[in-house]
Amino acid sequence: MFLGINININSIKKNLKLIKVNSAQFNFQYEDQIHLPYSIAMLVSYIKSKENLNKHFQFEKVFVFREKVEEYILQCKNSDILLCSCYVWNWEIMIYLAEQVKKLNPKCSIIFGGPQVPENTKGFFEKYPFVDILVHGEGEQILENIFDSYLDNKDYSKIKGISTKDFTAEPQPRINDLDAIPSPYLTNLVWDLVEKIDGNVNWICSWETNRGCPYQCTFCDWGSATFTKLRKFSDERLFKEIEWFGENKIVFIDCCDANFGIYQERDFRLAQKLKEMKLKTKHLQKMAVSWAKNSSQKIIPIAKELQDANILGAVTLAVQSLDDETLKIIKRANIKFDKFSDLTTDFRNNGIPTYSEVIRGLPGETLESFKIGLEVLASTKIGSVNIYHDMVLPNAPMNEPSYVKKYGIQKIRSPVILQHSSIHRRGIQEYEYIVTSTNTFSLDDLKVMYLFSWAFLVLHNFGILEHLSTYYNKNHGLMFTKFFENFFDFCNNTDSVFSDEVKKVKIFRDNGYDGKGWNDHDKKLGEIIWPIVEASWLRLTYDKQKLIEGITSFIEYLEEKHGFNTSKDFLNDLIKFQSFLITDRNDGNTFKREFFEYDWKNYFLNNEPLKSHKKCYQYKNKVIEKDPIKWGYKVMWYGRRQEKYKCHIEILQEEDEILSNLDGIELEEYPVQHLNF
Predict the structure, then answer these.
(1) Ordered structural domains, the chain, with CATH
(2) Treating both helix axes as pointing N-terminal to C-terminal, what angle do 497-511 and 480-493 enclose, rounded to 10 degrees?
(3) Quick check: pTM over 0.70?
(4) CB of 559 within 8 A of CB of 571?
């Protein structure tokens, strides 16, 4: 009797048809690293926590690798549902996947979610008729409601937070108890959702400690997408996830918070735990963080913990623009710049690298205001800087028709640049929209801004001409932007390593604004896509002697143009000092050491009068790597935010020497122990 009951139960289970769910979260690969499908994993984790749903749905492996899209399409031949997690870097391949799956399997319900799904759906379903449902905002509870209706009568009309070809519903309230979503890490569900790959693949873990953003910058969809309310995951959960990262040998954590450090005490404890885990397991190499906007001295202890664990890139002190009218238009409230400058100094004094961000082409900006902003940045001890296009995201306030009309925003569809991603296995081209003009600047103005951005970054911020431009600013009152203008005049009239590179940059810029893309690939620099400024620095410094010749030629041009009449011996010593501070691919010594005729350190660092005084400076070589490709990666890819490309004057060690004791002694013959370093 009991045996018969067991047979009947097994028969029922056997005859129960599970609903097959496929999902996709395509990513690009960075050398051997690629992101785990965290967003899909959170959705699946939540659905599986619902007993009434878990027993009906069977989740297959997530589609991640772009080069396998044709194979993935065939896997959906008998699928009931396809979930697509959409971002700017995978929208086109998602569209292709969905369209082909619908052709192959018309009965498959295709559901799109993620930041790239537009809130304004006018014309969407006419353009993409193969998409059945759009999910707006946080997807966990919405997907639960969709799956409930799928099991019932497939009537989605009462579900909040979605759009179909027939209606757009009111928004779904946000999830207040984030711990109601089981962690896909702590349950190990994430490993069930990814396929085993032949070869060496290191998975990047996305990690949320909170959701929301209290700011409403118009270029960003973070604040608007979360209604500005901040919600936290529990400390217990986050501490356990950190332990899981260590146990699973995770090398890269990508923190998805909009403002890490905003919960100062809690985030300090998380940083301590991350440090403890790193020191114990040794696996974690880096944690990418978007730091709290308007960061203050209060986050220094948090950054110090991560730095002590050697996983900190840099603390972001983003400004976006330095023009008051522009900041007002984009609803961005920066801290006062004098405090910002003090803050960069405080971080540097604590040995913490800083990283700032500027957006080129914001509404309200003019060519003149942009140049003034660069002038201000060049006059501060700011850390590494990145200058971005003004990208228009689908759900950002900047994309609202009334905003576009008010500020005369013109944009182009431009191929996405995913810097440092592999040139291989890229598949379908992805696109973004970037601003090309507004009612305050033209496309020609923007092209000039682009050149000045390049000059500020490569020549000044990356250190190739930094101390030369600073010298002429201090001694002759020559503005930094005027220095850059003279540099471009020189390149237009004289052949040098600089003029060759500027020609490449102009062609690259013009092609970019013509919609032809921003991918710079140089075989001698590796099989990856480089930001042009990083590639320029690597090319300019490739041959140190040619670089010095180019610098010397430019300074001679500058001197003659302005009639400065500085002595050549003096300038040669300054050029040697400038060259000395640039990281050198051919220098394999542990320490870099050089003699100079002038006290440059006190002149630049302490504003002391320049003295003719024999000096020897030394600093520890920042990157020692024999492989030329790996050297470039370590200096400019992995090391940009930590400014591995140059030495700051503050860390120079020095030893005064009596001139008479040095007569006739070559540098390499001088006993190192006498320098007392």
Answers:
(1) 17-180 (3.40.50.2300), 208-290+298-313 (3.30.750)
(2) 100
(3) yes
(4) yes
